[in-house]
Amino acid sequence: MKRLSILKKMIYAFPFLTTLYVALLGHDKWLSVVTETCKRTD
């Protein structure tokens, strides 16, 4: 049960970490990473 609560905390923290990542690296870099990933999946 302890492992499940840790997993829940990670899921809750994920949007915050993503926002922090965007703020640190800059929006343009994030967009280019997203577009590159989308191109690869096609």
Main sheet characteristics: none
Number of domains: 1
- Gyration radius from CA atoms, angstroms: 14 Å
Structural class designation:
mainly alpha
- Mean of residue pLDDT values: 81
Please count the beta strands (DSSP E, at least 2 residues each). 0
| Poorly predicted segments | none
Shape: elongated
Proportion in helices: over 70%
Number of helices, counting only DSSP H or I runs of 4 residues or more? 2
Distance between the termini: 39 Å
Order of helices and strands: HH
**Which band does the percent of strand residues land in?**
under 5%
Q: What is the element layout, followed by pairings?
A:
Layout: H1 2-25, H2 27-41
Description:
There is one protein chain. The protein is mainly α and 42 residues long. The chain has one domain (2-41). Helices cover 93% and strands 0% of the residues. It has two helices and no strands. Helix 1 (2-25) packs across helix 2 (27-41). It starts with a helix and ends with a helix.
